[in-house]
Design goal:
The protein is α+β, with helices and mostly antiparallel strands and about 350 residues long. The protein has a 4-stranded mixed beta sheet with strand order 6-5-4-7. It has a 3-stranded antiparallel beta sheet with strand order 3-10-11, covered by helices on one side. Strands 1-2 form a two-stranded parallel ribbon.
């Protein structure tokens, strides 16, 4: 029986989600048979930050659970990686809040990475290294992760607008924030694919979310930017292409012309060359809190999975540390842009 209580320093406007997040992520990957968790907010003069940072609550919750796995291995005299593997959540099981996990790939990736990362020989090498080095020590560990994707309503919506000019150039507006994650590039790809044109025709209308073009933009967070704004851009571009295709079908000879010629003809015929899209993600924030404690419902739209193996070295005199090697295996579904996603992982 596991009993834990999380204490969260009060953060302006975010205390409620901060209280929920570590509890949900504590049992995101594991399913111990019996556990009780609660969380409380507390005023503190220790934390000087005025807001939360990325992945708030998730890292803390998963860190505590992985510590539990280590202690369980020590107490049972089992290898820690074996304890972790035994307790991975499987397809067909449910989260503690009773949301079905239909497609967990954790066990498959765990076994795959264990081989490709050369876990067994490297674990022996780490032990041998530590025996002969008094002031430098190494450690190696394999860890899984499962991250639920989906913002709670009303945040799980996004807008987009596609504008085509007479010369065939296409300008996009969407409510997302480009912060180095490649969101603009993915939006350009989605629009170009839906319009059936080269991406060289497409550009972003502003470097940030244009609130005059796209009002009431949701926050870009929780790995939902490509989902929300990408679907909005897809809707807008698809509507625009369908409009032009319908026009081309009514004019003999236009079905096979190049993009620029089609756009120019559409303008001459007074066809609207702009379209808007609005995507409302299926509402999965249907948690029902029970009077006696606990909750049930669907919190996430889907899950992403990953497994990592890292070896690190620490200098016990200076405290400096370095990463010797890291191996990763991630299930990101069908990637919109492999180069961007690999770059983000790196």
């Amino acid at each position: 029986l596991l009993n834990f209580r999380f204490f969260i320093a009060i953060v302006f406007h975010l205390s409620h989600p901060l209280l929920q997040s570590p509890v949900f992520f504590f049992l995101m990957i594991r399913r111990p048979p019996r556990s009780t968790l609660s969380s409380s907010s507390a005023a503190s003069d220790v934390y000087k930050r005025q807001t939360s940072f990325r992945g708030y609550g998730a890292v803390q919750g998963m860190f505590v659970m992985e510590s539990v796995m280590e202690h369980a291995g020590w107490a049972a005299g089992l290898a820690i990686d074996q304890v972790r593997a035994i307790n991975l959540i499987q397809s067909g099981q449910s989260t503690p809040y009773h949301q079905l996990v239909p497609d967990s790939s954790l066990s498959t990736m765990w076994d795959q990475l264990r081989l490709s990362a050369e876990w067994e020989p490297r674990e022996r090498q780490v032990r041998e290294f530590n025996q002969v080095h008094a002031h430098r020590k190494r450690g190696i560990a394999m860890l899984p992760t499962k991250f639920g994707i989906g913002l709670p309503p009303p945040l799980n919506q996004g807008g987009g607008r596609v504008v085509v000019f007479q010369d065939g150039s296409v300008v996009l507006y969407h409510g997302g924030v480009e912060m180095g994650q490649g969101l603009h590039t993915k939006m350009i790809q989605i629009a170009a694919d839906a319009l059936r044109v080269s991406a060289s025709y497409v550009s972003i209308g502003s470097t940030g979310p244009n609130l005059e073009q796209i009002p009431n933009a949701s926050l870009t967070a929780g790995s939902t930017g490509s989902d929300l704004f990408g679907m909005a851009i897809l809707q807008a571009a698809s509507r625009l292409r369908a409009r032009l295709d319908e026009f081309a079908g009514s004019r003999p000879g236009l079905e096979t012309v190049e993009w620029r010629e089609l756009v120019a003809a559409g303008y001459q015929a007074r066809i609207c060359l702009s379209a808007e899209g609005h995507y409302a993600e299926p509402c999965h924030d249907k948690l029902v809190w029970n009077a006696g404690g606990g909750c049930s419902g669907e919190l996430h739209n889907y899950f992403s999975y990953g497994v990592s193996c890292s070896e690190v070295e620490v200098d016990l005199i200076t405290g400096s540390w370095s990463i010797v090697r890291t191996d990763l295996c991630l299930d990101v579904g069908k990637s919109l842009n492999v180069a961007i996603d690999v770059g983000q992982i790196e």
